[in-house]
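Open question from group meeting: does this chain pack into something compact, or does most of it stay loose? Before anyone orders reagents, we agreed to write out a predicted structure and look at it together. Recording both the input and the output here so the notebook holds the full record.
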Amino acid sequence: MKIAKIINNNVISVYQEDGTELVVMGRGIAFKKKIGDSVDERNVQKVFALKNQQTSDNFKMLLREVPIELIVIVEEIINHAKNTLGQKLNENIYVSLTDHVNFAIERYNDGIEIKNVLLWEVKQLYKDEFQIGLRMLEQIKMKMGMELPEDEAAFIAIHIVNAEMNEEVSTTMNITKFMQQIINIVKYHFKTEFDEESLSYFRFITHLKFFAQRVFKGTHYENNYDHLFDAIKEKHPDAARCSEKIRNFVAKEYNHELTNEEMLYLTVHLERVVNR
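Structure tokens returned:
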């Protein structure tokens, strides 16, 4: 490996034979080095291979100002998230999560605390991602001596969910709010609480995530199952009435019309989550 660019004493970039750029990190890896020098691989701590050039450029810019300890923590947490969730994450999370947490640490040092208005919703709707956020706070406390508030675990969770769904962070926050609104409608209609550890609840939450994405993107299921929806309404009238309330709410608040196929899937999930 030969140095292609020196970002700072701890970060360089190299090019592989196929032209792929790698961002290589290691304490003092570029000390007294110049472009074209060989890399002492014993000093390599982390290697990042980001496919998108813009993402790679943004990441390299961040690495100029972010402590190496934080980069190590972020990379460990992203790998942990991939393994725990079994999901591919949009590689932009290396930029967005690093940037967010670095800024959170700056705020911490300045005595500024930002409250997360979606803390409760994130804890309820994205339990696995929130636990990953808590793990990251533990790592920051242990390795950097900073005890960030629980609100930051929720912000971290939102970045992870955003990378799962390949959305902008602002869209993910809107989706989270939307999901909680739908859940409130369901709870009020059935006058019930959910078994949040049940498989049916997990399926319902997963359905709501993609349902919310369709609403915010303005996409629809086709109307292919009108006859089946009629049969489902007859079989599960209470769930169908709840679906109708949701349809009216979404039309009024989000100007989005639900097709009968969307209503079919929603009614089936409602019946499962309430009665199983």
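Observations to bring back to the group:
The CA atoms of residues 107 and 113 lie 7 Å apart.
The longest strand covers residues 3-8.
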